[in-house]
Amino acid sequence: MNICVVGTGYVGLVSGVCFSEVGHHVTCVDQDEHKIKQLIAGRSPIYEPGIEELLVKNQKNRRLRFTTNLKEAMDKANLVVIAVGTPANEDGSANLSFIESVAKEIGDHLTSYKVIVTKSTVPVGTGEKIKNWIQEQCGKMAFDVASNPEFLREGTAIYDTMHMERAVLGVESEKAKELLIELHKPFNTNLVITDLATAEMSKYAANAFLATKISFINEVANVCEQLDADVTKVAEVMGLDPRIGSAFLGAGIGYGGSCFPKDTQAFIQMGQSAGYSLKIVPEVEKVNFEQRKRLVMKAKQAFGVEGLRGKQIAVLGLAFKPNTDDMRAAPARDIIPMLTGLGAEVRAYDPVAMQAAVSYLPHITFASSWQEAARDADAVMILTDWKEFKELNLNELKDELASLIVIDGRNLFDPQLMKHHGFYYDSVGRAKIEIEGERYESITYRGSRLHRQKLS
Ligand code: UDX
Asked: What residues pair up with 67 in beta bridges, in sequence order?
């Protein structure tokens, strides 16, 4: 098949690369010349494991091309995929201005029948709008509009696309249906064929449900803390019920990223303008934000009456999740300003997201390793569940720290192991490990340098 993908952001680039990998001929278009040059040179503008190998391989075998020229890219294509951004408006609704201008441009260049497929997450009814925008430009030329929302996750985007567990084909004609079935044949996946509105809705419903699962388990965690229960075990028990499923029951500091926060907001707005006020999803959002505040309170509590003023906090992890440099709606962007607002000094380390984080967090310092971040720090705070942190050597961590306080927003360590090592360890939804007697007193009330000497 010959496919044109408009927009080389996460969704567009990953889809384009994967379509070419399974044998389709793909031309990706973007108006950003610099980005296109970079892509032609085999460099990915996004951090995504495995993407550059496929970029190089499929350009070499001529199944994948990049251009800034939409007309030329559309020329031979029977399918045009719209994958441009839909940022949030101030009221949380999805901004469709990029979609509109691309749809009109597609209309301008339409010289033969094509199916125009939307992969961007768009409110229900956008397919109809796209149809009108194209029609206004191309007059009587025949075309179909379809919806094929994307469910990929950042950090595992290539894997998710190559092994997609389902594809939603929102179509209005047999021709469009046949083409989209052919597009997905090499992926050997479950196809759900629907109308446009249902396909568009399914993306919002899926994301809002996953966000709900996360906020739900976070609330369970908060009750567990009050009652000395362990949320990770509770989640394990829940997850073994196939009606619930084990995924997305990881308690922590709430969800971030480019999708959940934006899509839940847009879903609420969409309901409102359709005449129905969603009740669960707004609460999901509230719980999500409260969860960040709770971690800051845990850090404050660790220092007792001294509070956080003047304390050196080593923050490990800035990205909203591991294997990405994406800082969009990252919990770190809420938590770190709360810490500095309480007088703490923050030195942060993230394996890949520091460059992306600088502009959001101008008042902190960055370290080139977790060891450097932890050096002489009064506490460590874990905000992203990078493998590197999960596997860190606790003896080494003890050697670096001035006082042995770990506030873990991602439940990376076994509390009993932390106890054995002598840490004060507070995580999410599990019993807090406190240091008894004199050792705890010394953490709370004495200068940290002094305290370190005392412990070793
Ligand atoms: C999500 C959806 O998973 C994907 O289907 C959709 O297309 C886009 O949005 P993504 O934002 O890349 O993907 O990341 P995801 O892995 O879903 O994680 C989202 C956030 O939830 C992260 O901040 C993560 O840390 C958090 N999370 C996830 C939890 O706090 N607990 C969990 O159990 C799972």
From this structure: 29
